[in-house]
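Supplementary Data S3. Sequence and structure tokens for construct A.
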Amino acid sequence: METGLQQLGKAGALTLALLGTTSALAQSARTVLPQPAPAFSGTIGETIQQSRPGSPHAVRAPQGAPNILVLMSDDVGFAMASTFGGPVPTPNMDRVAAQGQRYNRFHTTGVCSPSRAALLTGRNHHNAGVGYLSDLPVNFPGYGGRIVPETATMAQVLRLNGYNTAMFGKHHNMPASDRSAAGPFDAWPTGLGFEYFFGFNSGDNDQYWPILFRGTNPVDPSEGKGQMLDRRLADDIIRYVHNQNAASPGKPFLLYWAPGSTHAPHQAPPEYIARFKGQFDQGWDKLREESFKRQLAGGIVPKGTKLTARPAEIPAWASLSPQQKAFAARTMEVAAAQLAMQDEQIGRVLAELDRMGLASNTLVSIIQGDNGASGEAGPPGTINELRSIETHDENEAWMIANTEKLGGPDTYANYPVGWAWAMNTPLRWVKQMPSMLGGVRNGMVLAWPNHVARPGSICPQFAHLVDIVPTVLEAAKLPAPDVVYGVKQKPMDGQSLMASLAACDGAKPRTQYFEIGGKVGLYHDGWFLSGDDGRPSWEAEAAAKPPKWSLYNLDKDFSQGTDLAAKEPAKLSEMLALWKIEATRNNVFPVDSRRPMDRVDRQSAGSPRKQFDYWGKDVSMPAVGAAPYLAGRSFTVRAELVLDKADASGAVLAWGSKFGGISLYLDHGHAAFVWAKSTDPAEMATVRSAATLPKGKVTVTLRFETTPTAAMAILSSNGTEIARGLLPGKMLMAAGNGENLDIGRDLGVPVAAYTTPFGEIEGDVPHVSITFD
């Protein structure tokens, strides 16, 4: 006769088995993530002899799910790479295109952060909460600057379905205030589903001396010394795949690769730049014609496409002086070299996947650009991106004097807008202009061995960044989840492109809006509505104007060359009404056409602090967002030091870099202060004490006093003034975007020419205080 315990055990086992079946059904649906764990399938008695362990539970990807490699480069125009008729040879991307399919009507959002949010979530950028640059959040539903929980990322969905997930390169989807050691970390890549992250969080980064993170931890600045950032990213991808495959062969992975090139700074090794010597001397007008001929011959653009005219705001190449031409040609040589180097890294990674036997089941999407080519440097170009981005008043003689240094570590360059326009051939205008195809149309290649009906073909179907996530999920045989971590999900805005690999449907119905900074676009079944305020992308100070509306039939007008608004008033009215519906549905309102710095949400930012304290010489934080703004107003820095010797050297406090920044430092025992608006000697100043500081404990004070047009720097030691000097200005921008405020060192690009590695101080910095008047 069975005991009561045995009977109970059998009944319990049956109940657990039934629960397990229910749970298994829920797991098989994969619509609720994390997937519910199945009920315990064993039996539990009072002793181990009376018990049976359950089956182990592990979340696994569906059988045959492919590896995923998604690469999105930065500021590469539609017509830069040879794959889409451009002047820069990209043989590795060409090979992927020969195995897969090119999309010549693929679209982005028009600027960095929104494009990345759309790519990662499969939702429109305002719908995901990133309607503008994440650096400038505003407290409206579409503009918070962080990807919202209702739009889980591709990485979150794949990881919770049994994938390994890793990200490499540029993450520009969190407000600057989140980028310090205090977080919050929800918007970091590791908070968005990536198990591994190696890269940077800002809009750009120096290619020679980048500030990088692994996970949420800063990378040792000595790591990768002497190697360009693009190569380091590829090295890390290969290292990651080696280790992931060694630990779990057969487990699929997601590699999201966002190299950050060819965003400014345009930097590349001299041997790469030399490859392009003289290849752009013909200028942007002629180059545009040459690219257009290649595009027509290669079927990149359909016959009958119009080569749109150069806007009046962009100077003709012939109008430039010989010195201006030489400078401009060199800027393009450097940009081409940077893209060529990026393409070589693509080749290295793909070759390694092939060598490991992984390429045959890897879905590859290469998106050349998160928007059109950048015209933000305006007609003259720049050797110092952030220095010029607001006022465009760099000293031309100084720029030309640096022509041969372009591409090296002493410049932070971006080419003239004429080249950006040429890199978008045959389209109109450039980045930041979603009303124009030159701002939002980018080349994309999609490849998956044995899944492309016509390898090497060109698909004219309308496509958008939001289509990548649905494509990946269909390839992996996964549904878009209804709930992720208890949060009900918004439906996908994108559509899978998997069917287009079998049969491309260029006439597939589609509606897609565009909006950045008050400029508007709307695609609907071949028609395109453009609402543009007439402000060029480099004129940040221009007053906002109501948009001028124009209308194009892109089925017959690939390049947006013929405005039909006057001839089609009914269609124009229909498109305007549809735009309002789409804008309302996607949290686009209120449309914000203010200049970038006017978008800062003062209410969310709170009252400005007057006192900052730092305890120790190993403190670093982002120069913008977390650190105080050390320009334009009077303040006092008081530093308590303990020096190892009387002739100690190294940084006490450094903010920014030589491209824009300040440093209070020691030079062989002399207290010194450097102020640099740029690398132009006319915009730099150094104040240095005649006497040296003693060994041991000493206090150094910097007094920064502003005047209406400039500023005075006063240095004191233990209460006694030791040096003072007038500075050539009071305003500067900490540059570039990835730079820090550092205590006791100077990471990234240094502000001053220190005699110690990374400006490490020879001693200690127990306390630094900054007090604003």
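Construct B, processed identically:
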Amino acid sequence: MTLSTERLGHAQRLVALQSTLEQIRLQQQIEPLLALALEFIQAVFSYPLVWIATYNPDRRELTGVHGAMPKTEKTAWAQQGLKVLPGDYFDQVLLTGQPAVIADLQQDQRAGQWQTIASRTEIEGALIYPLWHHNQPYGVILMGSHHWGGNPRPEEMTHLSILCGALGAALHDLQPQGQSPGQLHQSLQAAIGQLTLISGFEERLTVVLQFLHQALSPAQTSLYWLDTQQQCFWQRLFYRAEMSKRSRGKRSTPIEVPLSDIQHFHQALRTEPVVAVSEIQGTVSTKAPARLMHQMRRRSLLSAPLMINQQLCGFLAVEGTEPRVWRDQEKQLIQAFAQLANLASPTMMEEGLPSASNNNHNRLIFQTLQSVAQSQDWTQTQQQIMEQVCLHLQSQWMAVLSPDPRTGQFQIVQQIHTPKLKPSTDPFQPLSEVDRNMIRRSEQAIAIDNLTDDLRLLAWKPKIDALGIKALLLSHTTQDQQLDQILLLGGLTPRSWTTADCDLLDRVGQALNAGRQQHRLQVENQQQKRLNTIVPQSLIRQDQAANPKQLVTDALQDMVEMLSVPAAAVVFWEGGQAEIAACVASPPDFDLAQNTPIDMAQDALLQSLLTLGPPQIQEDALQNIVAVPVQDLTPETRLWLNCRALEQVLAIPILESDQHQSLGAVIFGNNFRPGGDSRTWDLQLVGGAAMLVRHLASRYRSMVSLKRNRKQLQSLNCLNWYQYRQIERHCQTALTYQRDPQVQGAASPAAQALLAKSQAAIEKIEQLMQIDSEQFPLEETSLPIASLLRQSLARVSTLANQRQLWTQVHNLTSNSTATGVNPKLEQILYELLLAACYRSQAGQRIDIWCRLADSQWLELSITDQGLINPQMIADLTNRSDVDAPTLKSPPGKHLRACQTLMKRLGGQLEFAQLDDGRVLSRLMLPLKSSLRV
């Protein structure tokens, strides 16, 4: 399937991709959005068959929107619908989010009706790419080739991955996605408010079913209860939107399923917070209750267990008549509603009067669920919940621990304590395998009444003793076997923890875990939005940068904003030496010195980035990135990377995709968060930063090359001007000697001397023609200012007399001497006087003013009353590029050459128009010694 013809070069393909992505972000309708994708694929690739379709998960159907087909085929097929069948290629791609490569579309039965179309159009190799966003399918792109095989180039896969990712995000924004997280939270909050007004258990369960059904819109929502005597689940309540109020929740023949028929499903309910089943995944899943789904006549099921006193008493079920991919938000929502149903358990609502302690527990759990549902700032919400738990259970310390997979230690994510305690932020030591297994297998909170006499958690005892904690309550916040987060509750004196205390901490831990997961999803969503916003804007800013310094500074600021790091630097190297070109840091914890020299030979970090393979695909680009803990850096690197509070360093080489030699590197550093939570690098954001670095490499190389070329052009213009004026001068000298009367027809010594002078002038012309910009001699000599002015005025005297101009020198001493180059300095002054003469009218004056600026500089100013183009003065003053219109031809071209040469001589040349209309040409000449003028 590899194509033989490349319609566009690599750089052109990247430009086309960037342009397409920018246009995609501007689209508000699906059809023109996908038309852009079709146009890009046809322009960049040579697939004769292209089909782009959107996906309807409820109907399990693909609907064609745009496409291209061989000329022999009619185009009506592009808008056809296609049912997605279990096990076919489209089902596989939509479920996994991974592209499928088909060697021969004509021979593969899993291609469905496309097998027939492929045979008719002689299509063989094919590629199906999903349009995914946030683990949800929104459509597919099918591309076919006349060639057999399934070997698309990595470059093609990279471009298609970027394009399809952008299309998936755009379709996510344009297509209705059901309820947003905020709406789901509102549903949960409304249900909580309604439950507070109802006291009956059955009525509360009915409210839970109603709100859950409205939030997820399934075919039916049911509550199944466990009959321990009959060892079966039976349908206690159910809700359907189309049911009448009288028949709602009633059923003539309730469904009953023996536990023996759904053993794996029963076990999953006991150990997992949510069990999701769909025919999309096939019926081979051990968790799928085949008997139950057969009786319900359902093809998808989402269930959450109902627990009373840590015992399974039933489950909530959201049922669908069609296969359905259950979203994470839907799973979290049913889990939250299951917890609401748990709080309405009959042991607390129907069996006698509840105790004051239980009422307080319920109130606190309700408040916790409300806080989680309404949370805007998760850190603050978790802090408030922990404070309420400590106050309710009369404890003095509470902490949330998170394991560090790299070290095995448990970092303190967040903690609260009384003013008497001064806990440290140092991590807890790794637990023994016995203690880890104890926490994993525990079905309820672990209570330690007196730590002094208890042998559990021995690795933590020194730290807990140092905190002054004597009694401890520990809860694992998740119901699986992975140690994700742990809640620790401590008291300063030994105490007996009740079952209600353990249950409360478990419930709070589960709520905090659900809130943390929701917060993590929100953070990921924000990161994706930040990536989609910053990357295109940064690419535009890089393209609009006026100079390399602005380019590097802007790009670094954008990458720092995207990665949210406290320190970063751009390092460029050349000839074995490296230097910090730009940096972002906050002293004193982060202190980088710009323009700091770095010895490349002694720096292991930079040596590892010096020579790398070109990043042809995204995975290769990420492989070139180096992430190193600070403690693993060599002393030479730590010397210039002076960031004492850093934890990790991430280095991305500044490397173009077609180059092997990197220009430098972008170094990022992160630190410990308050509370000891260690930061990790988000690969998605790092990939975005790597894309910006590659664009930076291309733009920087182009700008440096352009600057070098412009400098060379200025140097050549300067040399051409100088050669032209000197040749003009020597030609006039030679002609003057040859036309002398003594030379005509005479062989006297005087005639011979004049001819020798003429020949010497001609030889100087030949020498001038042989020098180039690299050999332009700039040897310094001492030149009296009076001689300089006298020679320059003598050269323009003829022109001044012809145009009836007056020239005068003011305030000049006879011994003023400047350090310059003869005759180059004289040539510059001559050019300035020549330009003044040409722009002046008959009878006007040209004045030359001599003034001592200070002990090091002498100022020579020429004023005239001639007419001059103001734009030319502006271009000369602003040091405009050589391609400015006023500087492309004389006199602007010659005056710019004078500026360039004067700068090389160590002086300055400025132009201005005075308020009285006179034109000022100011020369600043370096003096040989202190003079009086």
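The radius of gyration is 41 Å. The domain at 181-349 is CATH 3.30.450.40 (Beta-Lactamase).
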